[in-house]
Amino acid sequence: MAEYSLSNRKVVVSNKEMTFTEKLYLPAILKGMGVTLNHFFKKKVTLIHGEDLKTFAPTYRGLHVLKRDAEGRENCTACGLCAVACPAEAITIVAAERQPGEEHLYREEKYASSYEINMLRCIFCGLCEHACPKQAVYLTDRLVDAEYKRKDFIYTKEDLVEKMDDRIDVSNRQHN
Ligand code: SF4
Ligand code: SF4
């Protein structure tokens, strides 16, 4: 009867007696060391973290930024859509009403008095960015720092809102 195999990669195991040279294991050891030696002189593909800088794709999804408009006002209007879209429930927002005299700080009448992202929960999926109707939150090619304490992974507005003198270019991520 004909035998059928899905992959055709079936290997028949042989129990044949080893030869004297095979029993010495030396040829096999030398062959293995040859492979190691061969790789020893090849160009390394691994990068030393902290010393070698890796080039990320322009669309890399790293640390978030909360954007300001051209006049420096915060774009976020605390609508909460990003928090609802977040599958990891990593975003917490507290909304507040803009007061007279604060027009230069916040673009709309409502703003986020508190905006937190728990980077231990975040899976960097980018859904918050897609959900935002105000072009306020974007993921960037920056990395989240390593920390020793869990609470330090909770990023607040102070960490997320871009600085006036250090604007973050997100033009390669803007899709709406
Ligand atoms: S990137 Fe994804 S997981 Fe992280 S905060 Fe945004 S929606 Fe949530
Ligand atoms: S970042 Fe965007 S989606 Fe999230 S609360 Fe602010 S305006 Fe709404």
Write a structural description.
By secondary structure, this protein is of the alpha+beta class. 19% of the residues lie in helices and 14% in strands. It has 5 helices and 5 strands. It has helices at residues 20-24, 26-40, 81-85, 127-131, 157-160, and strands spanning 64-66, 91-97, 110-118, 137-139, 154-155. The protein has a 3-stranded antiparallel β-sheet. A two-stranded antiparallel ribbon has the order 1-4. It starts with 19 loop residues before the first helix and ends in a 16-residue tail after the last helix. Bound molecules: iron/sulfur cluster (2 copies). One iron/sulfur cluster is lined by residues 76-82, 93, 112, 131-132, 134, 136-137.
CATH architecture of one domain: 2-Layer Sandwich
Major sheet size, sense and barrel closure: 3 strands, antiparallel
Q: What would CATH call the class of one domain?
A: Alpha Beta
User: pLDDT below 50 for ≥5 consecutive residues: which ranges?
Assistant: none
How are the strands ordered across the major sheet? 2-3-5
Number of strands: 5
- What is the average per-residue confidence, as pLDDT, rounded to a whole number? 92
Helix content: 10-25%
H/I helix tally: 5
Order of helices and strands: HHEHEEHEEH
From the N-terminal CA to the C-terminal CA, the straight-line distance is 63 Å
Structural class: alpha+beta
Rg over C-alpha atoms, rounded to the nearest angstrom: 28 Å
Q: Which strand-content bin applies to the residues?
A: 5-15%
The third-level CATH topology of one domain is: Alpha-Beta Plaits
Shape: elongated
List the bound ligands.
iron/sulfur cluster
